[in-house]
Design goal:
Elements (H helix, E strand, L loop, with lengths): L3 H18 L3 H11 L14 H26 L1
Helix pairs in contact: 1-3
């Protein structure tokens, strides 16, 4: 039988991980906004390096894989 709470959580993880893995502009804006906390710089003035994109891709891909595992477990 399908567990809807677990299924919804798995879908949430898949969608969030996909946004993180493709470096969606919303995620990029959020990263810049968090880096500007406690500084006088605006989020638009902060440049992100290539390592941040790589970490986002790896973390997002892992989150997608775990989310798919949760979805499969919810439907099994």
């Amino acid at each position: 039988m399908v567990e809807f709470g677990q299924l919804a959580f798995g879908v949430f993880m898949v969608l969030g991980g996909a946004l993180l893995a493709i470096d969606h502009p919303i995620v990029d804006w959020l990263n810049r906004w968090m880096k500007s906390w406690g500084t006088t710089r605006e989020p638009e003035d902060i440049e992100m390096d290539e390592n941040a994109a790589l970490v986002g891709f790896v973390g997002g891909a892992f989150t997608v894989i775990v989310g798919l595992m949760v979805v499969v477990d919810a439907t099994a």
